[in-house]
Amino acid sequence: MQREFRSRAGVRGFTLVEVLVTVVIFSVGLLGLAGLQATGIKLNHSSMLRSQATLLAYDIVDCMRANQANVADYALTLAGAPPSTPTSQADQDLVDWIGNLAANLPSGDGSVTLNGNRVTVVVAWDDARNSNIPAKTMTVVSDI
């Protein structure tokens, strides 16, 4: 059995093609990883905003439980302005709550609706990073 040996001149450039293919595959992988990272950051930010909205919704419910004698004074519509000069604890709680919504959520707003002992709190915000659903709302229904 006789082995054939090729000269180096016959295989010249073959390793260069292998390196170029490897660089292309590696680049596509890195681009995919960068896209995955960007999506993860976007969804993490959306999750943080949802958590903030939940905490803020329960904040106003807790304020209402602490001031049960004046629960009816907490009624507020979405895009409704809280009292400009708070004269009661309920007014002050609403002013603070709307201020916290605006400070912690992009375009944050909220409403409070009462039906007997049941309160419905709606928190709305703009989730500009998540273009699938730009405006989001979260509703909390609780008994006082």
What does this structure look like?
With 144 residues, the chain is an alpha+beta fold. The protein has one domain. It has helices at residues 14-66, 89-104, and strands at residues 109-115, 118-126, 135-143. The chain has a 3-stranded antiparallel beta sheet with strand order 1-2-3, with helices on one face. The longest helix has 53 residues, at 14-66. The model has no long low-confidence stretch (mean pLDDT 88).
What order do the SSEs take from the amino end to the carboxyl end, as H and E? HHEEE
Biggest sheet statistics: 3 strands, antiparallel
The N- and C-terminal alpha carbons lie at a distance of 94 Å
Number of distinct helices: 2
Strand tally, please? 3
Mean pLDDT: 88
Rg from alpha-carbon coordinates: 29 Å
Q: How many domains comprise the coordinates?
A: 1
Low-confidence stretches: none
How would you sum up the global shape?
Answer: rod-shaped
Oligomer category:
single chain
Which percent bin holds the helix content? 40-55%
Topology:
Blueprint: H1 14-66, H2 89-104, E1 109-115, E2 118-126, E3 135-143
Antiparallel strand pairs: 1-2, 2-3
